[in-house]
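1st attempt posting a full record on here, be nice pls
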Amino acid sequence: MEVKQEYERIKALFTGIDEKQLELIDGTIWEAARLRVELDDLYEIVKKSGLVAVSTKNPSMQKELPVSKMIIKVRANYLNYIAKLSNILGKNIEDDDNDLSDYED
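the predicted structure (as tokens):
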């Protein structure tokens, strides 16, 4: 998956959002897209190598691979960006609902 494709996918979730607000979060969308692609790439490495190297001679001897620490950091950053974007999207949905309350009984 390319960063541009992921950027467009995430940005599409914000259709109908105020253009000024969209401009404000554009960098956040780009960063979330980059992190998602990086996370996918790291996951491919994990599928091939695993997170821990285990000695064939002595299974109790194990070594944590660098990818295991990196994937945790990237995942946490990605989830942080997605939570922020989701919060913005949620606020807009709530705002729209509040506008409808004017028309209710």
